[in-house]
Each structure stands twice: as structure tokens, then as C-alpha cells.
């Protein structure tokens, strides 16, 4: 039995439905999950990639209902491009994260940015959008990207976590826009909230989210300690660290691992713990 079917709307909560886009990959797991909030008058969260089949299924499933808001957690190409076609088909405004298009000339560690994303309204932390029977509050969670938002559904305690907290893996934090310091602060922000359940863009719903967040923060601290041990031994090149720290990792994910190590090093540099000489890192004097 396929627990992750594409092309079929599924109810996951009395107020929430989801539709899985057909874009599985090492970075998207089974694909990007589009969420529909409400009934009759609805919001669509993360409409997904530029994929005609996904959009066709979404529009067909929502026939007879009125889309009043299209919300994007961030602007990677597996999340926001379908917003434009959905707006054209429904007339609904694109609301949520700010536009962001980073010209990242390094090798990509995850999806590229959606350069054509143009929101009609940007939500700041704590601002809301509402419809019949539902209210969604923006929760600013920079780190994966600087413009990342989660959305809290006030009526039932659900939090749509985008890529900030996923149900299958830790998120990619890839400089120059991904920022480990901001990511850890955002995790701590969610840790202090009292949400009931998380609905991530990739992977299953998360009910024991406090436990997951503590584990994610602990995992990052462990990586930090590994990096510091490498520097103590004079092993200051990222490629060397990745080879030792990520043994057995799918080779397709090595670039992502290298970007993650770089994000940790930049965080440590900002805290005055490490320094660099060109591409070689060392403990700060």
C-alpha cells in the first residue's frame, strides 16, 4: 500500500487536507505537500512546484470552493512556483513570505530560489490571514531561508512548518542565505510554543514535536562538537570533515553536507570560536 499517493486529496484533520506533488527527490522525500485549510472558503499553503498535473488535480479537488489566500512558507522552487498559476485560475492573492532570490553561484544543496515569486501581501511575525472558520498566524522562522515562515492554525493548534521542521529529516541550512544561528534560534522559538501537531511540507505529521525539536537541536550541537574536534586535529578543510562526519551518506547529498558544515563554521566564527585562512578553518587564537 502506498501511504504517500500523489494525485489524491487526503483529509488529515477536520480543517486540513493535503495533496502530494509528484516531485520526490533526495531533498523532498516523497514530494512537496500542499495543504488546504478550511472548507468552502479556503487557504492553500505551499502550492508546490510548476507542475501542470499537480495544479490540475488541486483545482479539480477544490471545485465548488473559493480560494481566498495562497500562502507560501518560502520561495524554493518546490514550494512557491505554482502560486502564480493558482492565482491566475482563482483570483486569490499570494500572501506570506517576502520575495527572495539569491544568486547563489556555489553548487546547490537544495532547491533553487523562485525568482518570479511576487507576493500581494507579506506577513510579518504574528500577523494573520483569516477565512470562514479558520485563522492562520505567521510565525517567522528564518534559518533554512531568511524569509521562511511557519503558519499556525489558531482553531486547532496545528502548525504548518514548511521546511523548518520536517517529518523525515533535518532541514538543509545552506549559506549564503541559510543561517545556522537563525535556524537554532527559530527552533528554540518553536520549542517554547504550545502547538498540538506539526504538518511539514515533507514527511509525516509530527505529534511529538517537542521531543523532535530537542533531538534536532542536540544533533546540531553534536555536529558542532565534531567540527571542533576536527579543528583541534588540524583538519580544517570542509571536504575532509564531510568525509569523516558523514560516512555512508548518499553521494548526492555530499554538497548539502558540505553546506551544513559551512553553516556551522560561520556560526562558530560569529561566536569568536573559529577563524579561517582562505578555505582552511582553524580554532580561533
UniProtKB/TrEMBL annotation:
Which keywords describe this protein according to UniProt? Hydrolase
Report whether Transferase shows up as a keyword of the record: no
Alphabetical list of Gene3D superfamilies matching this protein: Ribonuclease Z/Hydroxyacylglutathione hydrolase-like (3.60.15.10), Winged helix-like DNA-binding domain superfamily/Winged helix DNA-binding domain (1.10.10.10)
SUPFAM superfamilies found in the cross-reference section: Metallo-hydrolase/oxidoreductase (SSF56281)
Task: Return any one Pfam family short name.
Answer: WHD_BLACT
Q: Among its keywords, does the record have Hydrolase?
A: yes
List, for all copies, the residue spans of the domain called Metallo-beta-lactamase.
31-202
The family database entries (InterPro entries) matched by this protein are listed as: LACTB2_WH (IPR041516), Metallo-B-lactamas (IPR001279), RibonucZ/Hydroxyglut_hydro (IPR036866), Sec-metab_biosynth-thioest (IPR050662), WH-like_DNA-bd_sf (IPR036388)
Q: Which superkingdom is the protein from?
A: Bacteria
One Gene Ontology MF term:
hydrolase activity
Q: What is this protein called?
A: MBL fold metallo-hydrolase
